[in-house]
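Milestone 3.1: sequence recovery, worked example.
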């Protein structure tokens, strides 16, 4: 239900555009989110060291029997890359 509501809200905001009045709260939320993603990525990168052994990261991700850590690692890496990538259409 939460994802359906999020999609509804997103579509509604795109259809009914409003001028941004105060961006401070938005930037604070984005900053906190970036910090939490980086902490999660660091934890996901440090945690499998005892399980990974001498395997490379790529081999560990492909051959891991427990998919939880590789999935978190890949998701966090993708989120951080998304944060750092240049935005198209920006001036």
């Amino acid at each position: 239900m939460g994802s359906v509501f999020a999609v509804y809200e997103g579509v509604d905001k795109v259809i009914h555009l409003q001028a941004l009045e105060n961006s401070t709260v938005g930037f604070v939320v984005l900053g906190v989110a970036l910090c939490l993603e980086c902490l999660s990525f660091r934890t996901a990168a440090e945690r499998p060291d005892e399980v990974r052994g001498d395997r490379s990261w790529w081999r560990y991700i492909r051959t891991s029997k427990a998919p939880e850590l590789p999935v978190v690692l890949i998701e966090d890496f993708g989120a951080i890359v998304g944060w750092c990538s240049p935005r198209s259409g920006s001036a």
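The first helix runs from residue 2 to 15. The helical segments are 2-15, 24-46, 49-52, 57-63, 68-84.
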